[in-house]
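anyone seen this seq b4? input:
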Amino acid sequence: MAFAPKIITCLLVLTVYRAAQTESHITCGTVTSTLAQCVTYLTNSGPLPSGCCVGVKSLNQLAQTTPDRRQVCECLKLAAKDINGLNIGLVATLPTTCGVSVPYPISFSTNCDNISTDV
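predicted toks r here
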C-alpha cells in the first residue's frame, strides 16, 4: 500500500510538468518591447541599430520551448499589422542579419502552429 502514494505523486508531477510545457510565459508586450528598436530599420527609416540585434538575440534566448516560439510568432504577426510600411524583405532576413539562426521562415504567411523546437 505504501507504493500507491508514490505512484500518485509521480503521476501528479508528470501531469504538472507536461501542463507547464503547453503554455507560453512570453507576452506580446515582451515581444514588442524587445524588438521596438527594430521598427525604424524595418520600415526603411534608418540604419540597423545595435539595440535591435540585442533584442532579436534576447527574444531568441527567451523562446526556447515550442509554446514560447509559437507565442512569439503570433505576437509578431499581430504587431506587424499595426506597423505601416514594413519592408517584408528586411523582416524576413532580420534574424540572419543579427546572427540568429531561425529554423522556419519569417513571413506573414507562416503558420505559427507548425513551429516547434523539434527541428
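The longest helix spans residues 3-20. Residues 3-20 have pLDDT under 50 and may be disordered. kinda curious what u guys think
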